[in-house]
Write a structure and sequence with these properties.
The protein is about 35% helix and about 15% strand. It has helices at about 25-35, 60-75, 90-100, 145-150, 155-165, 165-170, 175-180, 215, 240, 245-259, and strands at about 5-10, 10-15, 40-45, 80-85, 105-110, 130, 150-155, 200-205, 225-230. The strands form two sheets. It has a seven-stranded mixed β-sheet, sandwiched between helices. It has a two-stranded parallel ribbon with strand order 6-7. It is globular and about 50 Å long. The chain starts with a strand and ends with a helix.
Length: about 260
């Protein structure tokens, strides 16, 4: 399977894996404002199977998705060292890739990653709204679910959601995703190998009611060079709600990886 993808720039490959249901625009929306001001990086933004423009085919498990990602890496990157960024479910896959390809991966960055796979087992805060602007909720169209997760309900956050998140949600193959989610756990659990000593970044939202922030703390022994940041006024769409802090953390992580 060849995954649909967008490639931007030249230099050190940066593979960015989006979360469950959206598509590559989730990652281009938050990362391109950072990388467009830098040189020397080739950003690769694939659509995962069943999401965006990548068909699911007969894939029925996370193992199948991981196989497609492996094939994509072999096709687009080969044996070249690369940087890896994963958001939410993409972070789960990224953790699995680090176990398989630790020597090839120059550094891993995780944005609101899944820490505990199954939702029922996660330690989660209640959804709250901490920042809002008049008229934003009134401007929502029927069926627009921005408010369900938004901790920051401002015009800027809504505009980013409409550009980066909603388009992917609208085209996802929901039947395929339901089939895959029945076999959601990777056969080989992330962190089941030796610790990864490359420069790492784990960024969580203090008000993230989807993946939380507590479970990810348990990952730290496996990533001895990890910065672990929990941002206030940030939910699962942290990249929309705290873009300035995410920018600073990603740039600092890139500096560590370059060294």
């Amino acid at each position: 399977m060849t995954l649909h993808h967008v490639s931007v720039g030249d230099g050190v490959p940066v593979l960015a894996l989006h979360g469950w249901t959206p598509d590559h625009r989730l990652m281009t929306g938050c990362l391109e404002p950072i990388f467009s001001r830098l040189t020397g990086y080739r950003r690769l933004y694939p659509d995962l199977p069943g999401m965006g423009k990548s068909p699911a085919g007969d894939i029925d498990s996370s193992d199948g998705i991981m196989a497609a990602v492996r094939a994509f890496i072999d096709e687009q990157i080969g044996d070249e060292p690369f940087l890896l960024i994963g958001e939410s479910y993409g972070g789960y896959l990224a953790r699995g890739l680090v176990m398989e390809r630790a020597e090839q991966i120059l550094g891993i960055g995780l944005i609101c990653p899944i820490g505990t796979l199954w939702h029922k087992d996660r330690k989660l805060p209640e959804h709250v709204v901490l920042r809002s602007e008049p008229g934003v909720l009134e401007s929502l169209t029927e069926g627009e679910d921005f408010a369900e997760l938004a901790v920051v309900q401002t015009a800027d956050a809504l505009a980013a959601y409409r550009a980066d998140v909603a388009p992917g949600l609208a085209v996802a193959d929901t039947a395929a995703l339901e089939r895959i989610q029945k076999n959601w756990a990777l056969s080989t659990a992330p962190e089941s190998g030796p610790p990864y000593d490359g420069p790492s970044l784990i960024v969580c939202g203090r008000q993230d009611a989807v993946t939380g922030y507590e479970d990810q703390f348990g990952l730290l022994p496996h990533y001895p060079r990890a910065t672990y940041a929990v941002l206030d006024v940030a939910g699962h769409n942290l990249q929309l709600e705290q873009p300035g802090l995410l920018d600073a953390l990603i740039r600092e992580w890139l500096q560590r990886a370059a060294e």
